[in-house]
């Protein structure tokens, strides 16, 4: 619940009631809000409560308090008690031992304790270590009683008992004048002065400096700037909310149209209110793509020869996202998902997403159309199979799939068709030459001439891979059957493989690291020999695995997949094997008394059967790998909200870094 206190002497406008009520509505649209007028001895509150109540249904009352004699305080206490008693969490039973742990922690005088001291406190109250580090620790953290980040190796050994102590330490950096003058650049050597003593005059332990810095990164308040020397620890961090409002003098104007050979994609976010810190969060979350060009309300980014500009216009309540390059859809989707992750935090925020009309392409005009379509409406049109929409400016019929191409998963089939066509074009030119070593110079020329097409295909494949893994890994999370799910199969013995009797054969199942630019084998493989009914159950997922291998593996991990005929053959053999299995599965339907079905019906049945297929895969991997090593793959949440299973090398870019202090 929230209390909004406003000064009756200064009035409603100066108290900015609308601003604070809008902010609460965006953050917590279901939380009750109580208005409290203060200084009523100096002026009687003048407030149209009925109008505010109509606009903000969360309001549950309006009270007045005298600052001179305390009149109204007793009523305020009673009202707070009554409102709090109705909150959903109130009255939920807690084990007496948990309550005892909470009381003991709150009574301790320290600001923080090591994890082992927290565990001992729990064990003294009869709570075992697993519960202390798991359920109870999470509850106490979520309730704001403690700060405990069990999933962060820098923070996991510390339990903060006085969260406000941490808040004040961080605020010292965020309000530091020297850092502001330095355009948000924090030299880590400054921390000894900034964190010299707390409000009580006690010194902040220097061993906690890296912890405080990591907490700032965890709350998306800062990120470490890479050291000039590769492998060296960072000595500086960027604090985005201390950046200047003025953009860099070298900043070019917004491009009105793409350069020759390039495409640009744009989206505008119209917000009901601009939540504080949105742009700072975005700059921190996308720092892997930084060009070092950023200001308080905008940033320039780059990824694999593609460029982006993201800017907030607070007066218009608008965020503008623009990406350009030869195939910008992949980078655009990364940034769009990142913005969505941030805006999703504000559950009461009203958002209208808009994409520009492309009718000028059809009119062959150099002047872009000024109209913007609602992104949500275009998605609904795709679902309803209304594949064209009229531009109200030119009255041209515009293709909805083209408007959404590559930026919404409904267009994945078109992207995959383009990938297939591009792959065939390149392989037709290369396959004959690559067999003849005397023509390698000619091969180099062809590859150089097709470099733009190869780059486009790599971006398209990475886009499909990201879309697939996002959908699949969230599906497994919902099923509570989390494990790697992208793989390929190879025959398990050296004897000649008999495709006619494939059910009885032994296989090796190899898990893949899901690093989007370069999925790769991550394990030595698991032996697989299963009966026909298992293959039938898991067949929907084999279809997904086959699609992933065909379309979501970029041609370049790099060009060796094109140049090396042995790699081409090995890759094609994996696809052929899965296709052979899937082609034979209708015959297995008869074994399962399912009878023959049409292709359309089979697709529907496969969609319904994905859950059992995932559970069957999870059960098999658990049998083969009871310790859940998964070939060294780690589940990783990325800043754009994706869940990926990554090897140690590719996970490293998302892990906390040790700073030089």
Describe the structure.
This protein has 661 residues and is of the alpha+beta class. It has five domains: 2-85, P-loop containing nucleotide triphosphate hydrolases (Rossmann fold), CATH 3.40.50.300; 96-161, Winged helix-like DNA-binding domain superfamily/Winged helix DNA-binding domain (Arc Repressor Mutant, subunit A); 164-242, Arc Repressor Mutant, subunit A; 263-356, TATA-Binding Protein; 476-652, no CATH class. Helices cover 43% and strands 17% of the residues. It is built from 25 helices and 23 strands. The strands form seven sheets. The protein has a seven-stranded antiparallel β-sheet. Helix 3 links the parallel strand 2 and strand 3 (59-64). The chain is globular and about 95 Å long. The two termini are 40 Å apart. The model is unreliable at 557-564 and 590-604 (pLDDT under 50).
């Amino acid at each position: 619940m929230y209390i909004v206190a406003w000064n009756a002497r200064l009035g409603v406008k100066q108290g900015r009631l609308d601003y604070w009520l809008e902010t609460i509505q965006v953050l917590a649209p279901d939380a009750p809000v109580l208005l409290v007028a203060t200084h009523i001895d100096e002026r009687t509150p003048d407030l149209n409560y009925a109008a505010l109540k109509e606009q903000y249904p969360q309001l549950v009352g309006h009270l007045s308090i005298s600052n001179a004699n305390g009149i109204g305080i007793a009523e305020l206490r009673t009202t707070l008690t009554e409102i709090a008693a109705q909150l959903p969490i109130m009255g939920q039973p807690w084990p007496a031992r948990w309550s005892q742990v909470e009381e003991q922690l709150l009574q301790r005088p320290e600001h923080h304790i090591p994890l082992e001291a927290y565990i001992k406190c729990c064990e003294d109250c009869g709570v075992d270590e697993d519960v202390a580090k798991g359920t109870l620790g999470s509850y106490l953290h979520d309730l704001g009683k403690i700060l405990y980040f069990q999933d962060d190796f820098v923070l996991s050994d510390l339990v903060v008992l006085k969260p406000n102590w941490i808040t004040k330490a961080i605020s010292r950096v965020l309000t530091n004048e020297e850092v502001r003058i330095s355009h948000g650049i924090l030299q880590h050597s400054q921390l000894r002065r900034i964190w010299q003593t707390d409000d009580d005059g006690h010194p902040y332990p220097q061993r906690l400096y890296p912890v405080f810095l990591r907490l700032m990164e965890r709350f998306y308040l800062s990120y470490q700037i890479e050291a000039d020397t590769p492998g060296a620890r960072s000595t500086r961090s960027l604090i985005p909310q201390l950046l200047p409002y003025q953009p860099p003098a070298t900043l070019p104007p917004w491009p009105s149209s793409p350069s020759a050979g390039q495409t640009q994609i744009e989206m505008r976010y119209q917000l009901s209110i601009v939540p504080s810190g949105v742009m700072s969060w975005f700059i921190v979350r996308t720092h892997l793509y930084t060009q070092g060009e950023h200001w308080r309300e905008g940033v320039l980014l780059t990824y694999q020869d593609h460029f982006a500009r993201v800017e907030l216009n607070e007066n218009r309540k608008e965020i503008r996202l623009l990406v350009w390059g030869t195939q910008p859809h992949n980078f655009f989707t990364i940034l769009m998902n990142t913005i969505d992750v941030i805006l999703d935090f504000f559950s009461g925020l009203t958002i209208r997403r808009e994409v520009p009309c492309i009718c000028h392409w059809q009119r062959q005009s150099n002047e872009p159309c000024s109209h913007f379509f609602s992104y949500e409406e275009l998605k609904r049109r795709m679902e309803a199979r209304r594949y064209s929409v009229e531009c109200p400016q030119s009255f041209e019929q515009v293709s909805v799939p083209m408007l959404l191409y590559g930026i919404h998963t409904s267009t994945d089939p078109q992207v995959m068709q383009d990938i297939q066509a591009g792959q065939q074009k390149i392989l037709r030119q290369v396959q004959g030459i690559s067999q003849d070593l005397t023509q390698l110079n000619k091969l180099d020329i062809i590859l150089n001439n097709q470099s733009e097409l190869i780059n486009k295909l790599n971006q398209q494949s990475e886009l499909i891979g990201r879309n697939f893994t996002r959908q699949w890994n969230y599906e497994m999370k919902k099923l509570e059957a989390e494990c790697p799910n992208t793989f390929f199969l190879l025959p398990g013995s050296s004897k000649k493989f008999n495709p006619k009797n494939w059910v009885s054969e032994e296989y090796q199942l190899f898990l893949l690291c899901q690093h989007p630019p370069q999925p790769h084998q991550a394990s030595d493989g698991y032996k697989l020999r299963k009966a026909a009914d298992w293959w039938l159950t898991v067949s929907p997922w084999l279809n997904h695995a086959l699609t992933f291998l065909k379309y979501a593996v970029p041609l370049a991990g790099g060009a060796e997949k094109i140049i090396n005929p042995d790699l081409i053959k090995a890759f094609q053999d994996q696809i052929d094997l899965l296709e052979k299995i899937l082609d034979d599965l209708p015959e297995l339907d008869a074994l399962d008394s399912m009878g023959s079905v049409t292709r359309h019906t089979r697709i529907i049945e496969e969609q319904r059967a994905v859950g059992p297929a995932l559970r069957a895969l999870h059960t098999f991997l658990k049998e083969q790998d009871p310790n859940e090593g998964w070939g060294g793959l780690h589940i990783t949440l990325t800043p754009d909200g994706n869940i990926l299973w990554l090897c140690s090398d590719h996970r490293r870019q998302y892990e906390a870094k040790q700073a030089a202090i």
